[in-house]
Write a sequence for this structure.
């Protein structure tokens, strides 16, 4: 189970915090400022990405140039930023990691990953071009036929799970809600 990092000092006033149950009926201990009473909540991070597919059915994967899991293959994805929608974040990450021109499709999967405090959200996407310009986080962006996917060197379980579900029925309109 994911344990939030300790928040020792208040982000508002800089004074020490202590762990306690807030007086608002909350059932979880939170870091509460001993001076101003501000309650520091820690919530899961959203990872957003795409399953970019060429018209011939090949899927775009990116070889990671960053840790964790440097040198392994992944779908283009990353942390959602403030002031963007899920779709905007997924499109931005696809552009940043692969330099791919996509047409955003439907929501495909939502995977809760509580042991790392994340939720992974993937959209289907159609590649409008087969030319890629990977960013600094990517060693290589490459298309793989379904039978060529490098399963043994995929970066994360959520990527493998998403790809397996997608390949099982690429035309399904079902949204896959899963937990790891």
């Amino acid at each position: 189970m994911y344990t939030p990092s300790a928040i020792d000092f208040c982000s508002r006033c800089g004074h020490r915090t202590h762990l306690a149950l807030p007086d608002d009926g909350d059932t979880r201990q939170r870091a509460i400022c001993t001076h101003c009473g501000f309650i520091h909540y820690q919530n899961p991070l959203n990872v957003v990405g795409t399953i970019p597919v060429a018209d011939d059915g090949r899927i775009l994967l990116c070889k990671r140039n960053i840790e964790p899991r440097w040198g392994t293959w992944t779908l283009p994805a990353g942390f959602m930023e403030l002031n963007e929608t899920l779709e905007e974040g997924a499109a931005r990450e696809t552009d940043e990691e692969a330099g791919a021109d996509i047409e955003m499709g439907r929501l495909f999967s939502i995977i809760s990953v509580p042991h790392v405090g994340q939720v992974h959200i993937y959209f289907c996407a159609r590649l409008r071009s087969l030319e890629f310009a990977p960013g600094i986080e990517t060693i290589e962006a490459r298309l793989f036929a379904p039978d060529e996917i490098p399963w043994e060197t995929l970066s994360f379980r959520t990527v493998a799970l998403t790809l397996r579900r997608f390949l099982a029925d690429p035309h399904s309109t079902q949204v896959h809600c899963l937990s790891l």
The mean pLDDT is 95. The chain has two domains: 1-42, 45-179.
